[in-house]
Amino acid sequence: MKFSLEGRTYVIMGVANKRSIAWGIARSLHDAGARLIFTYASERFEKSVKDLVDSSLEEHNSLFYECDVTNDDAIDQTFTAIKNDVGVIHGLAHCIAFANKEELKGEYMNASREGFLTAHNISAYSLTAVAKAAKPLMTDGGSIVTLTYLGGEKVVENYNVMGVAKASLDASMRYLASDLGKYNIRVNAISAGPIRTLSAKGVGDFNKILKEIEERAPLRRPVTQEEVGDTAYYLMSDLSRGVTGEIIHVDSGFSIIG
Ligand code: NDP
Ligand code: KAL
Which domains does the chain have, with CATH numbers? Predict the structure, then answer.
């Protein structure tokens, strides 16, 4: 039996489909009894997210809001609507990243100014923007969790501008943890190993990356959305009440191998 999250409400940002890491987090929090609020980038994803939730989560009382994180007004409107509809939230999962496809191959040096700014805007600044908007709703304290990748700490082929954006995301997470700790709001990141999601599709040679995990990671296998979901559950629950500003690697141990 899980440590119960009954009576608690969590915002999940970044469910695209059933393969999304955000969906692994949603299921884990739902299993622990939490109420969930889903946000998606545009109206065109509303039906697919609602259908997925309705068909997969038993006895849910989830709410749904559109929120394009590049738009400050949209962020304000979303969190104002959530405040009006539920009042208090206890945590937020930020599972959002984007870079233009052409930036995700070849040499980092060729990054364009526009591509660099797009990746940083959506993948890094958005955490700060949503943390600021969510803070007034976390009156009982809270836990903010973001998703990062090893490519922000070490050079990983093809990850390029997204690696630089993840380094910015990691630093943003630590500065936010420092700012928000006095309100009993914790901020942490999960560094996930490679998982085949819509974002991972068509970028780099994913099979080659997974093969290296199978050969070299201590656990000799890739991680799953469920495993990342359960670590997010730990970070959202009081089990992790003394943990903030931390990156937890859920990657079969790959990051320790030189
Ligand atoms: P998904 O493709 O399932 O999710 C990416 C999400 O980002 C989508 O839901 C997409 O929303 C959302 N998004 C993109 N742009 C915007 C925007 N402007 N406003 C709001 N939402 C936006 O991929 P993952 O589950 O793999 O990615 C989730 C997180 O996990 C990312 O931060 C990623 O970097 C990280 N990660 C992934 C790993 C992997 O191997 N898959 C490894 C380590 C980290 P929409 O579909 O509505 O456009
Ligand atoms: C080294 C790895 C191999 C892949 C290289 C780069 C991966 C970058 C991730 C980034 C989030 C992918 C994109 O932005 C894809 C985008 O250009 C096109 N896709 C889309 O627009 C789809 C439809 C939407 C849903 O995607 C988004 N993101 O909105 C990294 C691997 C091993 C690990 C991964 C995949 C890490 C990660 O950060 O996702």
Answer: 9-249 (3.40.50.720)
